[in-house]
Design a protein that fits this description.
The protein is an alpha+beta fold. It is rod-shaped. The protein has helices at about 85-90, 135-150, 175-210, 215-220, 235-250, and strands spanning about 5-15, 20, 25, 30-35, 45-50, 55-60, 70, 75-80, 100-105, 115-120. A five-stranded mixed sheet has the order 2-1-4-8-7, with no helix packed on it. The chain has a five-stranded mixed sheet with strand order 3-10-9-5-6. The longest helix has about 40 residues, at about 175-210.
Length: about 250
């Protein structure tokens, strides 16, 4: 069921000087007011007064800033029932009590446009500690929602819980798939790191072996390639083997 704001539709019957009033209203409300068939006379004034006519509890236009808004053949405006006089009239009454007010529509430019009727205004109880009726429960509900929002930790221990699978733009892989992929990358990285360390040790050992070779054997040699080195001496043979090991490592 949709929420409908309070309204008061007033239909004058000028020849009978009567008003038909449709809509239920309560003290302290802002009411959508419509005067039917009066769009051509914006000087019209609507009043809600005591039964003896001595006290005007509500009126439109009420202030200099108030003005009717023509809508088709009707006049529309917002009538305030949150006046000091009307609120005071309901003081001490119960939640089911009503006050019947005399309603009038009169033109300030035409002497023969006047109509009168009655409307019962309902009570809107005010909380003793709350200047606006029912605003305290609303404020409490807002405070509760604010606290829940600020304390929500996304760790699954507080409500409400939202599955990450229901979030947008999360990609095609699940958390489990991502965890497995990361574990595989970590294992591969460890293997490669171990191989690099082993190769580094081998290169260092080979370099040291080369340094230990008899430098005198190579002092006056001029060999174009490793394979061209003579193999007749132990020192030259050792050098050739070490260089071939280094080549194998570099190629691997």
């Amino acid at each position: 069921m949709s929420i409908t704001l309070s309204y008061l539709t007033v239909t004058p019957t000028w020849d009978r000087k009567t008003l038909t009033l449709a809509g239920d209203v309560a003290v302290r409300e802002a009411v959508a007011l419509t005067i039917v068939g009066c769009a051509t006379d914006t000087s019209v004034v609507f009043k809600m007064s005591s039964e003896d006519g001595r006290v005007d509890y509500a009126k439109f236009p009420n202030e200099d800033t108030d003005a009717w808004t023509p809508s088709g053949s009707d006049l529309t405006g917002t009538l305030s029932l949150n006046t000091d006089l009307l609120v005071a009239a309901f003081a001490g009454l119960g939640p089911m009590d009503t006050i019947t007010l005399v309603c009038t529509v009169a033109s300030r430019t035409s002497s023969n446009l006047f109509a009168i009727g009655q409307k019962a205004v309902k009570n809107w109880m005010e909380d003793a500690d709350d200047p606006v009726p029912y605003s305290t429960p609303l404020a409490d509900a807002i405070d509760d929602l604010t606290t829940d929002f600020e304390e929500h930790t996304h760790d699954g221990t507080d409500a409400p819980k939202v599955s990450h699978a229901n979030l947008t733009n999360i990609g095609s892989n699940t958390h489990e798939q991502i965890d497995l992929a990361l574990a595989g990358l970590t294992a591969t990285d460890i293997t490669h790191t171990s191989g690099i360390a082993t190769n580094a040790l081998n290169i260092a050992a080979n370099a040291q072996a080369i340094a230990d070779l008899d430098a005198a054997t190579l002092q006056n040699s001029d060999f174009a390639t490793v394979d061209a080195l003579p193999t007749g001496t132990t020192t030259t043979k050792a050098l050739r083997e070490k260089l071939n090991e280094i080549l194998a490592i570099l190629k691997g």
